[in-house]
Amino acid sequence: MIAIVHPTKIEGIILANASKSCMQRACAAALLHHGTTHIVNPGNSFDDLAAIEMIQKLGATIINHSEESLTIQSTGVAPISQQLNCGESGLGIRMFTPIAALSKSSLTINGSGSLLKRPMHFFDEVLPQLKVHISSAEGFLPITIQGPLTPTNITIDGSLSSQFLTGLLMAFGAAEADGVTITVNDLKSRPYIDLTLQVMEAFGTTIQNNNYESFSFVKTNKKGKKTNIQYQVEGDWSGAAFLLVAGAVAGNITVKGLNVFSTQADKAILQALSDAGAGLSVQEHQIEVRSLPLKAFHFDATDCPDLFPPLVALAAFCDGTTVIEGVHRLAHKESNRGITLQEEFAKLGVEIKLQDNLMLVVGLRNGLQVAPINSAKVSSHHDHRIAMATAIAALNAGAPVTIQDAEAINKSYPAFYSHLQQLGVGVITEI
Questions:
Q1: Most-buried pick from 60, 142, 240, 315 (CB within 10 A)?
Q2: In what order do the strands lie in the sheet with 352-355?
Q3: What is the C-alpha to C-alpha distance for residues 377 and 113, in angstroms, rounded to an integer?
Q4: What is the mean pLDDT of residues 374-390?
Q5: pLDDT tens digits for range 264-319
């Protein structure tokens, strides 16, 4: 599919889509919960749907599913299929593999698209320490596991992704780990671990966080746990970051449905917008943002690497050269995002330099004047965040921009183009 985005000034009010980070964790917690879970505001992205399919194959039953709510009944991990598939979800494969290993059944876990190229050596190294038999395609999918996973004191590397730790935390909690500790070296993306711990606590499992260097478990008293849980999925800061940047570079908009006290890592977009000089009003239930002359900024995205694409779209219209730290976190995303951003924004006339762990974006603004980006044909590289970043940049183009493989947005934000249309953007999609 292609999407043709026409340059325009935007205006309006939009409701943020559901957070897939919250939704997928809630699905995993509902599977592990012995009882009934009511998820309010469930997401409908491809990653969310993959999580729902995963928990069903691992033994959960879907009682009701609508746009407003999802009701799940479970007695814990009890696989009904030996073949599991996480789609293209990086969180899905990293979180559900340790959870699936709670079963004594032999299970094969696979994925699709870019997930097949993302390294899973972590499991080859760690799961055998937990008495789980594992075989992989030399550190890549598919992997076959056979448990049951047995919690014990272990030390893991947290530098590649915090998502591996999320899976272990949930699995250890479900296995009623008692008196054991997971020690973590060089943990990245700490806010995502805060989110994991928050979801687990909502479902009755509390873990002691020792300054992100280790996590200690004490057996939870089952008698104190509720059998009926209601969990509301927050609005998605990751997707909303693109809308907020759109307001900063091309209009005046209000985004509702975001929790300003959220532990989601990508809430940090507010700091970047403030540093760039955007017109910003942060209220408890809505964020208002309007375009003003923007200046270059310095931002460390090590703990929120998914912000790189919207940050580049923001930096493109700043006065001066913006510096973004954390490029090393981009190699194993849906694409190699550092290279992909450099290539695709070059087509739009924006120069991006990569220097070791730094990305330098040369802005097109000079004082009060901003040069329009090129009208060009760009590719998402099947990466949802690249598709969205180039669409936002297109708002300040000299003529329409065409995005190839534009359907990549379905992975996290299926309503993205329709939300742009609600804000007054001319978006034409063609198959």
A1: 315
A2: 298-300, 321-325, 358-362, 352-355
A3: 23
A4: 97
A5: 999 999 999 999 999 999 998 899 999 999 999 999 999 999 999 999 999 999 99
Written as six digits, the tokens of 66 are: 């609508």
Superfamily covering domain 2-17+235-430: Enolpyruvate transferase domain (3.65.10.10)
Question: If you search the block for the tokens 């000299």, which residue do you land on?
Answer: 398
Q: What is the phi/psi pair of residue 80, to 5°?
A: -110, 0
Catalytic positions are 306
For residue 82, give Cα distances in angstroms to 106, 151, 213, 380.
Answer: 7, 23, 35, 34
Q: In what order do the strands lie in the sheet with 251-256?
A: 10-15, 251-256, 286-290, 279-282
Q: Which CATH superfamily is domain 20-232 in?
A: Enolpyruvate transferase domain (3.65.10.10)
E strands in 257-320: 279-282, 286-290, 294-295, 298-300, 318-319
Distance between CA atoms of residues 174 and 151, nearest Å: 10
What pLDDT, in 10s, does the model give residues 108-119? 999 999 999 999
In the chain, which segments carry CATH 3.65.10.10? 2-17+235-430, 20-232
d(CA 420, CA 398) in angstroms, rounded, equals 18
Helix extents (H) in 101-211: 121-126, 163-174, 190-202
pTM across the whole model: 0.93
425, with CB counted inside 10 A (0-12, 13-18, 19+), is buried
Sign of the Cα pseudo-torsion (184, 411, 232, 245, in order):
positive
The rounded distance, in Å, linking the Cα atoms of 427 and 392 is 11
| Chain centroid to CA 219 | 30
- CB within 8 A of 118, min separation 6: which ones? 90, 93, 140, 332
Say how many CA atoms lie within 13 Å of 312 toward its Cβ: 34
Q: Cα separation of 47 and 312, whole Å?
A: 24
For residue 27, the one-letter residue type is: C
Strand partners, 90: none
Is the pLDDT confidence value at 226 over 90?
no
Cα separation, 368 vs 150, in Å, equals 62
